[in-house]
């Protein structure tokens, strides 16, 4: 996707209700806008012409004409075959490329520095994000980090109430507005813990509390009427953070040490089981 579509995604939560209608229409039909004038787009999105103009300015365009040009550049020749596997592959490629361009290596490195220096790491996540959080927890534990996941409002608040400035919270919320996570993050922030958020949008309740933000890509609607793993972008971020963390000699040593001990333990269990059969 072209940069203007990413800008629309990042600024979405700060748009007015009518401006969101313009955004929703463009994100779904951006390939058709190059043939429209401003009045036609306003009619399609059920808003006024003035709203389209305000929207254009809010996403960094000088005018609707400039917006059209940027959207035209985003259009790809959609000549994909009617092949479900190919469509899934292309969608995954799109998500990964878009996620990779939403932040720089410096953003990642600042997060890695905080994780390496943290006394403890708490991962706040709910629903499908919990699976991603659990995966990251296992990786961090293998590196010798003191880390745990908190998957419901009660446990998040209890944990947040005991945090200090030496601790880091990783908050995973696509919308940046998940009530349980935001409320727990507020308490952690009050206790001076550093908040690192993984989210789709800027300037949300969560990002305003965050010391560091890593943006993930909004995947809804990329494959209409098909089930798509909404955590793909989050997993990309976790893989990137893991790769950078493993560049630290101590992290890498601990990681391989724990894997070796686990392998040895499992081998011993197999031997004992075989003797008892």
UniProtKB/TrEMBL annotation:
GO molecular function: carbohydrate derivative binding; DNA binding; DNA-binding transcription factor activity
Annotated InterPro entries: Homeodomain-like_sf, HTH_RpiR, RpiR-like, RpiR-like_SIS, SIS_dom, SIS_dom_sf, WH-like_DNA-bd_sf
Biological process annotations from GO: carbohydrate derivative metabolic process
SUPFAM superfamilies: Homeodomain-like, SIS domain
Domain HTH rpiR-type span(s) in chain numbering: 2-78
Residues in SIS domain copies: 111-251
Keywords: DNA-binding, Transcription, Transcription regulation
Protein name per Swiss-Prot or TrEMBL: RpiR family transcriptional regulator
């Amino acid at each position: 996707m072209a940069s203007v579509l990413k800008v629309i995604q990042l600024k979405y939560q700060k748009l007015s209700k009518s401006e969101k209608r313009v955004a929703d229409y463009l994100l779904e039909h951006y390939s058709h806008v190059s043939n429209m004038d401003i009045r036609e787009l306003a009619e399609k999105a059920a808003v006024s012409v003035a709203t389209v103009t305000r929207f254009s300015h809010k996403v960094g365009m000088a005018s609707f004409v400039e917006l059209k040009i940027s959207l035209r550049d985003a259009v790809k020749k959609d000549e994909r075959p009617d092949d479900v596997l190919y469509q899934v592959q292309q969608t995954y490629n799109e998500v990964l490329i878009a996620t990779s361009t939403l932040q720089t290596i410096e953003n990642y490195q600042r997060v890695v520095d905080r994780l390496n220096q943290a006394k403890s790491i708490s991962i706040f996540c709910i629903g499908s994000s919990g699976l991603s959080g659990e995966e990251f927890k296992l990786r961090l534990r293998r590196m010798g980090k003191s880390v745990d996941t908190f998957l419901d409002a009660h446990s998040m608040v209890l944990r947040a109430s005991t945090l200090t400035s030496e601790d880091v919270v990783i908050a995973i919320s696509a919308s940046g507005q998940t009530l349980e996570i935001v409320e727990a993050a507020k308490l952690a922030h009050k206790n001076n813990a550093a908040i690192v958020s993984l989210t789709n949008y800027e300037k949300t309740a969560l990002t305003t509390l965050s010391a560091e933000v890593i943006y993930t890509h909004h995947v809804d609607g990329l494959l209409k009427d098909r089930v798509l793993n909404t955590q793909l972008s989050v997993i990309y971020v976790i893989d990137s953070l893991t790769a950078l963390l493993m560049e630290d000699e101590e992290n890498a040593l601990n990681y391989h040490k724990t894997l070796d001990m686990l392998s040895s333990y499992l081998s011993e269990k197999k031997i004992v089981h075989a003797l008892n059969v």
